[in-house]
Design goal:
elongated, mainly alpha, 90% helix, single chain, 3 helices
Length: 89
Amino acid sequence: MTPDLVAELLRQLMKEAITLAAPLLIAAAGLSFVLSLFQTLTSLQEQSLTSVPRLGAIAVMLLVGMPWFLGRLADYTRLLLTDFHRFLG
């Protein structure tokens, strides 16, 4: 396995990881911003006001997006296994 091949594999892996994590991270960041703005405007400083809705939103997004996440992972795994001969020699 050449260094170029390893670099290509890592690039593909990072691309897939970013593609899978981006929707969850963007939703969490957006919701955190809205909740922080709400807390600032109302002067409520309760920590559970930000933690619980964020965890709930991420859980809902994971449940709703699970078919897409699993489809992307299955496609990536299928791609790796079909090109396996290229990595061995």
